[in-house]
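Batch 3, record 17
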Amino acid sequence: MRLLLVEDNQNLGKGIHAGLSQVGYAVDWVKDGETAQSVLNSEEYDLALLDIGLPQKSGLEVLDELRLRGKDLPVLILTARDTVNDRIIGLDKGADDYMVKPFDLDELNARIRALLRRSVGRTSPIITYDDIEINPASHTIKKDGKIMDLSNRGFAILQTLLENVGRVMSRSQLEQSLYSWKDDIDSNAVEVHIHHIRKKFGNELIRTIRGIGYIVD
Amino acid sequence: MSFSIKRRLLVGLLSVSAVICVIASVKSYFETRHEIEELFDAQIVQSARSLLALSSHELYEQLAYLDEQSKDPAANESKPIQIHKYEQSMDFQIWLMGSHLAVRSESAPNSPFTRKEKTFSDINLNGSQLRVYALSNEDNTIQVQVAENYAERDRLSNSISMRLMGSLSVMLPLLGILISVMVTRTMEPLNRIAREIESRTGDDLQPVNDNDIPDEAKPMITALNHLFERLQVAFENISRFTADAAHELRTPLASLRVNTQVALNAKEEHMRNDALNDVISSVDHATVLVEQLLVLSRLDPESGLYKNEHTDLKNLTEHIVAQQATDAIKADIDIGLDAKAPTYVFGKSGMISILIRNLIENAIHHTPEHGVIDISLNMENDKVKLSVADSGPGIPAHEREDVFRRFYRIKGNDKPGTGLGLSIVQRIVELHQAQIALGKSKLGGLQVDVWFEAAETAVDVKNKSVMNKHIAMAAQ
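Prediction for the assembled complex:
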């Protein structure tokens, strides 16, 4: 899962970035509205965390522009302003959720999971496929009720594939959900992770579409 | 000393009216009395004329008789005829030939009232004051003398003065009541305003409705409304400031919380340390914010600046630059001070040192490594100019107004800061009635100029007077 964090405060941004990376998200962090807008135009994200009080362009302007261009990725607003009116403005502009500083990191994580779940059309927190159960909240995978061990990135790939059952996921799509800009992308990384998954869950689970990508069907 | 307009008006109007009433009454008493005199005198003259006219015909016979009798002196002692019982207060005598009393009223004496003719005279007869008038016929054979007792006039005068007193005693209290009602009604709008303001809650700063207010009270109400307006603005500023401050404090708090949780969840040592370092720097940020908020709140205009407080700006600047030079050196910045003359300015050294420190801190903060900061003190048109110039990025011209706003951060600036430093500087500038300007420095970055009012120190004054003495002596 690839998230965009827009926060101008150095310490807070660094903290959120670290906190979200700890639970396996690929997080890109930008510090002003202009940059946020341009990366939202050029890159694909599963969710954006947006601070309102930003230099150059406020979070609300960024949000406005995003929705005008028809992008429907979930947006969670992080702000120090807490009056009802502030919340109404944010939600009316197209935000999906709202968190007032200071907030709890675990709650932020839970809300991100809920937003991501709803954005792919699920209401249950647990993704199931055959005898496989993925719980993004506890970051656990079970097969036949037994907990399986999988790396953070392997987990992310499997989750993406199982959330998009029946759809071919290109290699670059999978790569994007794994890496933020800071990471050096290993050209074979996706293959390596798929290989690990197949070793643990059987070869039949993921089918390779040669030259394009992978599918779970 | 407190006084009541109502009481003043009441007492003033009442006493003036009373004095005027009394004067008018006294005057009208004397005028009436004079008129009465005239009237009565006229009546006496009239009576004398009537008597003369009525009696002359009959008396001519007696005159003829007297002519015959004149040879017989005994006839002179004949008793006068009493022909008429006139008004008791009016007595008369009719004399023939100047010596013969022909007729007299009952109470009139046998001797003539007066010797004077055609004029009024006052005589005293048997203890009563009489007004007498004598009139003779053309050939001076018959003389009528009419006397009237003064008691009659006095009685009338007294009765008139009694009436005047009576109407005064009714009029004055009535006047008092009317004036009191009128004054009370006139003052009512003021009482209404007082009640209106009294019944307000502390945060109700709506202007007082100035309809139905006397013109005289309008300047006061207008001034009051202006004060309300200013208070309203001040209150709004304070509440906006408080809200802004609360919001600004939330970000370091959020950062504290998030980084603490990251540290707790960290599996690797370096990640935990990283997060904990961020916790510390969040605390530092919050500390600076709180300290600057406190500084701002202490820059209260009420704490007062006195014209007699001087600060040696050169000394103070040297001291602060020395303190902050270590920070600059750490950041590899070349910092220097150029202060020529000792410069005394009006103001509190505590406040001015906060100002200088803030400006230098800002400069150090925004100047990159190997940069330069120049601080200088100069005299410019009787003012002392403090300049802090740096080789940092500067502030774009269109943002130079905004940077004085509280919590304003320059766009694109990701250096940590509270956005309060220049607000504090501006507040101190205002309190000292100094001027501040932001511009582009020769070093390429920002230049801040502050002009302080130069102060004459006690030493200067002493030197000057000594010098004047020398000049005076030389002139001699």
